[in-house]
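In response to a reviewer's request, we include the raw inputs and outputs for one of the modeled complexes. The three entities were modeled together in a single run.
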Amino acid sequence: MKKALVIVLLIVAAVPLVAAVAGLPPHGSPSNPTYTHVSAYYLEHGAEEAGAENIVTDMILNYRGFDTNGEVTVIFTSLAAVFGVLLLTGAVARKPAAPEIPVSMVVRFIARLLAPFIAIFAVYVILNGHISPGGGFQGGTVLGALYITVSIVLGRDEARRLLPRGPKPWLQAAGPLTFVGVGLLGLVLTGYYLGFPTTPALAWLRTAMIVVIEIGIGVGGAAVLASVYETMEAD
Amino acid sequence: MLLALWTNVDYVASVVLFCIGLYCVIAKNNLIKKFIGLNIMETSVFAFIVAMGVVEGGTHPSWEPAPGRRTPTPYPRALS
Amino acid sequence: MSSIFDLTLIALLIASALLAVRSKDLLAATIIFSTYSLVMCLVWMHRGSPDVAMTEAAVGAGITTILFLVAIGKTTRLER
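The model returned the following structure tokens for the whole complex.
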């Protein structure tokens, strides 16, 4: 009975979707509406107007900066939700920490060998986000994954030294804080929140603002992912 | 109709993946399974968005010179 | 029109999504889902959006899988 209901529901969902897809303009043709209206403007003016050579970075941080500001806040809020669920219910405090499982020597050696290279790659991705593909989110997740690897392979205490207690809350909040800081700088300079100065003489400042936001998002994202893992794992 | 579907086979793949994810979310009881289904739905939507930006013979918008650069508009949607 | 490479990737995607949904073993489902994310990352790379592909490779194939594994370790491995 339930199976039949599910199948009927799926068909009801799928038929309009397939019909709509069949009516879309052909895939890949340059005369598609997605290519002719606003994208043409971005491709034409994005690089000199917005401050970053990578147009995707221009769009997420400059043209849609407000949207990204909200998203960075959402990432921070997800951490707050994990803390709320796991810490406030007392699940962490009551139980002793789970025993650590010893890791094979090969894995340990490879992780030690690769960790510096992964860290350099992550920093490169964050700092080079305004020129080549990449940016704060991507580099931040790589950094967070590196922290998780260290925590699994070299032990919890070794990893905890990378994220000391004192600056930890500031690192976790780095994304929203830098975003709001740069936004307020824009408010002072141009009169609009997150406004980027448009005069050609201040082109370096536009690029600098974008790089600062990327660094903030990268550090904040890495700290958030690391502490989500830490909290879940310690439970 | 069938020819149009064949031309837009990337879009059709997204629809199929979306339906698989939807089935998983509706029919499974386990929360981890539901979350996997939700993730499949999400990535299928992103794949649809990215497929809309594709231009025949184009490359990533920041790589010049290229015969035709792909649309940058949809990617940031998928990033956020 | 899509190349053979595209069609192969799409077939892989649909197959891995179906397997991840159907598998009774949650550990197997998680690993298959990470394969799905990796193939999806290849698809996006091929469609010329390396930004989204990098995010998917780091988040989908890396961190989501690890969080799922932690969650499975804390609960049960088999779906009931």
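As requested, we also summarize the result in words. The mean pLDDT of chain C is 87. Helices of chain C lie at 4-22, 26-46, 50-74.
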